[in-house]
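Retry 2 of 3 after timeout on previous attempt. Resubmitting structure tokens to design endpoint.
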């Protein structure tokens, strides 16, 4: 499938799903796992309302929208921690896709919705911890990628990856399913991945070891002040960054991890920082948010980058 991204139309994403559901909706998400909400009617209703609010926003903004399934934690290691076996996890992944397909059927083409099967890191997402080589990462992520692809996603997105070898494995796992894959790295306040590798080096490594098989790259779960300084418009790897899903807060990962309250930052300031990056990221076509962001941030960002 050829994605309609980069063809002149802006696509937005949702904001910080987990932080919104925990801090704004008062829901409990063990291990930051939103897929557990698919286990009962009340949880499904909360997810449906969450997604619908962003679909309505995209309609008002006259943009397309990429919506991720609530499956960032729905892989085997995280499922085991939460007491779910592989069969149950597969059900959750399928149910997450079905929920978004139902929303798209209800709304038709207003807005254009792309369903993204969301994959997350095997580890924490903020800390590298125990690492895998690319072959092990491919084996680990293949079952979830296969279920999501079979359920009918338009693309797969691996968010908040902390080191390049896992990203290589994810790209290879997606390649087995013949579904476009998007790789999104997170960075620390110095603009490097939590592994210590430079962002550009990580993107170039993934492209080199996969034959540029990723549809495009993103940066997520970091504030623009953490990575803007490493984006050199003269570097070819910068053109591979098509999406941004920044945090609302300027705090580091360690500070956010220790926080008891939501830091939702300044939506207008965040929007101005996205606007300034337009000149550095020539292919920027997907804009959204991560931790602490909500509809206010996405609306401000979308308007800023289209003015």
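Retry 2 succeeded. Sequence:
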């Amino acid at each position: 499938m050829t994605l309609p991204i980069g063809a002149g139309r802006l696509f937005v994403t949702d904001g910080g799903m987990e932080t919104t559901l925990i801090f704004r909706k008062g829901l409990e998400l063990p291990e930051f796992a939103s897929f557990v909400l698919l286990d009962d009617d009340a949880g499904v209703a909360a997810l449906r309302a969450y997604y619908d609010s962003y679909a309505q926003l995209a309609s008002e903004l006259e943009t397309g929208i990429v919506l991720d399934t609530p499956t960032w934690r729905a892989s085997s290691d995280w499922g085991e921690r939460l007491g779910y076996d592989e069969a149950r996890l597969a059900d959750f992944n399928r149910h997450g896709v079905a929920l978004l397909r139902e929303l798209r059927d209800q709304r038709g083409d207003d807005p254009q919705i792309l369903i993204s099967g969301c994959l997350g890191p095997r580890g924490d997402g903020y800390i590298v911890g125990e690492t895998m080589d690319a072959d092990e990462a491919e084996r680990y992520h293949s079952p979830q990628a296969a279920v999501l692809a079979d359920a009918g996603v338009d693309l797969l997105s691996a968010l908040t990856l902390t080191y390049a070898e896992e990203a290589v494995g994810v790209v290879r796992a997606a390649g087995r399913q013949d579904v476009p894959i998007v790789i999104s790295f997170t960075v620390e306040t110095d603009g490097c991945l939590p592994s210590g590798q430079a962002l550009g080096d990580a993107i170039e490594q993934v492209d080199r070891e996969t034959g540029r098989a990723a549809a495009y790259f993103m940066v997520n779960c970091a504030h623009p002040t953490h990575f803007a300084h490493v984006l050199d418009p003269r570097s070819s790897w910068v053109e591979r960054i098509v999406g941004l899903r920044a945090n609302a807060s300027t705090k580091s990962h360690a500070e956010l991890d220790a926080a008891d309250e939501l830091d939702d930052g300044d939506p207008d300031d965040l929007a101005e920082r996205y606007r300034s990056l337009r000149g550095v990221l020539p292919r920027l076509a997907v804009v959204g948010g991560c931790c602490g962001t909500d509809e206010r941030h996405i609306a401000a960002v979308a308007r800023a980058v289209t003015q």
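Attempt log closed. The two ends are 30 Å apart (CA to CA).
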